[in-house]
Amino acid sequence: VKMSVKAKDILQMDLYGLLGIESTATTKEIKKAYRLKALKCHPDKNPDNPKAAELFHQLSQALEVLTDAAAKAAYDKICAAKKQAEERNRKLDDKRKKIKLDLEARERQAEAQSLDEVQITRTLEEEIARLREEGSRQLEEEQRLIREQIQREKEAQQSGDSGLGRNSRSNVTPKLKLKWKCRKDDETNGGYSRDLLLKLLQKYGDVLNVIVSGKKKGSAVVEFATVRAAEMAVKNESGLSDNLLKLSWLEGQPEEIASQSHQGRFTSTQHSFGADGALTNERDYETLVMMKMRQAAERQRLIEQMQKEDEEDAGF
Fold first, then answer.
1. What gap in Å lies between CA 219 and CA 82, rounded to an integer?
2. Which CATH class is domain 175-251?
3. Could you tell me if 219 and 211 are in contact, meaning their C-beta atoms sit under 8 angstroms apart?
4. CATH number of the 1-67 domain
5. Which residues form the RRM domain (predicted)?
6. pLDDT digits (tens, 9 = 90+) for 237-265
């Protein structure tokens, strides 16, 4: 009996071992194992490695056979027959030391076994031929998913490379420059500390960092998590009533307002109006009013706390 090259190739392989799964694996587990291994050795990822292409082909053969019920049953039957033959041979090897084998009986057994193997091998060949004619939908679907994933990885890598090559405004966190009046010999730094600045600015959103300049008095930089928070701080925050803060953009200013002036910035005595006398964003009117009230309450609480600390220090 002449076995097809395809069947010979498959019989030489341990399809389960190739995928790293047990013979009891479900179709879902078989597909998952194939996807993990096929992604690593896909020809598109290993253009200069012929062994990777060969392994990818073998994995595809394994998926093709093991996800088809009839082909898998034929393959499992051959594997079981081989295992039984190996077990018989092992037992025979053990018995050879003790008894003399009956040659004729062994020949008859071998002949019967050969006929069985020919039949089940023929069955596997027929199932493989059927798969070739019908086309393996399982294999085509899995390979399509792998191609799509590889394409996504390439696009993500290209996107990452292009992002590194340009100074994208979206990648810059918004930062503001803070200034206030302070004498060089003023140890209190004009009444502003990092903690106080943090409390004043957190009302507008998450603050990533506040850096108070150690060399230049009356100066600091604040980094916000969102542009919206930075915008609100620029418009609304005025700091302590006896030493006002001046806030200006350092980095991450939105393009749509980059050319506009900051004449509409809130202070302790004026509202947030633009150059045309109208509210810069009418939808935010109620939000700004509420924020202004919270700001005033927070400022008053901080002033009272600072006065209390001053009195306690004076008591010492």
1. 82
2. alpha beta
3. no
4. 1.10.287.110
5. 193-252
6. 999 999 999 999 999 888 765 555 544 44
